[in-house]
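agent> Task received from the user: take the single chain below, predict its 3D structure, and emit structure tokens. No templates, no multimer pairing.
agent> Plan: (1) validate residues, (2) run structure prediction, (3) serialize to tokens, (4) report one or two observations.
agent> Step 1 OK, no nonstandard residues flagged.
tool_call: predict_structure(input=
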Amino acid sequence: MERRDFIKTLLLSGLAVKFTPEIFSQTTLPELSVAEGDSPAVITKEALKALGGMKRFVGRGDKVLIKPNIGWDRTPEMAACTNPEVVKALVEMAFEAGAKEVIVMDHTINQPKRCYIRSGIQNAAKEAGAKVLFAEEQRLKKVALKGEWLKEWEVFQDFLEVDKIINAPVAKVHSLSKVTLGMKNWLGAIGGSRNQLHQKIDQAMVDLAAFFKPTLTVLDGYRILFRNGPQGGRTSDTKLMKTVVAGTDPVAVDAYGATFFDYKPQELLFLKLAQDRGLGKFELEKVKIEKRKV
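)
tool_result: status=success, residues=294
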């Protein structure tokens, strides 16, 4: 072997040693992680760990918005809103990853202050250092959504002025869409007459999901609302699943969440529409999933 070929071989070998582990780690990471355990905070952190950690999604100096479901004047035991411990864990991890600011907000159905306080989310998020904002009408901006059904709608500017959005819904049944998971959660990012969207709720959900494109979706399935959704009101309407599902594929996250209620993903129109739009996969057998128990 000539000297220059020998040096070239050494350099290529060195590069392989230096970069191959990182490349392989990126390609082998799951699209979906499912963590089960007794603590909502612990399983949230474990689900993120399985995906490669929050630093994979949040960079130093990022402004991050976490969008839980805070829509209802209900306590955590009623499972109408995202578990506050899940929200707190996400805020903590975002700061640990280097975020300069973390915002937590939602456009509620019931009176905002009561929803924020009674859900436990306001206190939990503030304890972790987040800025907790109410959805204010003066912050609405008509935006071209360019959806197949929703061409434009009023969106809260807060969602447009951040670097990363983490969608953090809770798993519940819904009278119109059968279930409310990640894609349905985007109705809390917009204003206007949201009840008009009920005419074509599946199409609206997909158009909104295509517009917002979250960096990460974390589904709270610790305690689910399997009856009288989406607001419930009795603990007897809930079921402890002690599960958090996280993923980079929002369609797959919702597909997995649908199984909590014994729905097959192909039974839900919005999942098929979302897959057809290229937003992800609802066929879970084609999704790389990692499951952990803690």
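agent> Step 4: summary for the user.
The helical segments are 3-28, 40-50, 84-96, 112-118, 121-127, 201-212, 250-258, 269-276.
agent> Done.
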